[in-house]
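Worked example 3 (structure in, sequence out).
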């Protein structure tokens, strides 16, 4: 019977494996996943999302804290719309996201976050666009279809809590 020992090359392999798994956890699955998004389509979808949020939350008393960095036309329009409607919006920075990921698990927050966490996913399948909005534990989603170079809602808002 042969005793197996961890030799240094195996230890390095195991360390590399663990680090790659941790790196996978650090990537954010949120944002706009459409290549070359149309600013017109993004504006129409962001306006519709804003109207739905206005129906659900009181503007002057609500703050949204974004979970991910916004660098796409949909997200920028959404943030601008929410602020114009009277909502407070705290944008995420790459540094703040890294601090959340690598913070000690039992370390108390110096200042508790006020408001709701907000994130979104925008994706496309052919001529069908899909917007998923996550506000704390609530999930909202709606499909949009492209017809004659314009985009329109393809159904009602679906809400899951």
């Amino acid at each position: 019977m042969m005793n197996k020992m961890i030799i240094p090359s195996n230890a390095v392999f195991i360390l590399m494996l663990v680090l790659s798994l941790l790196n996978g956890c650090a990537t954010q699955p949120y944002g706009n996943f459409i290549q070359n998004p149309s600013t017109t389509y993004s504006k129409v979808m962001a306006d519709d999302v804003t109207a739905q949020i206005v129906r659900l939350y009181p503007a002057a008393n609500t703050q949204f804290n974004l979970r991910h960095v916004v660098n796409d036309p949909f997200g920028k329009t959404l943030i601008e719309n929410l602020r114009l409607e009277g909502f407070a919006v705290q944008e995420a920075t790459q540094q703040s996201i890294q601090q959340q990921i690598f913070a000690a698990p039992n370390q108390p927050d110096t200042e508790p976050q006020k408001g709701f966490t907000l994130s979104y996913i925008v994706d496309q399948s052919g001529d069908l666009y899909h917007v998923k909005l996550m506000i704390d534990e609530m999930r909202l989603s709606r499909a949009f279809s492209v017809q004659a170079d314009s985009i329109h809602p393809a159904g009602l808002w679906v809400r899951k809590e």
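Notes: The CA atoms of residues 48 and 59 lie 16 Å apart. Helices lie at 8-26, 39-56, 73-84, 94-102.
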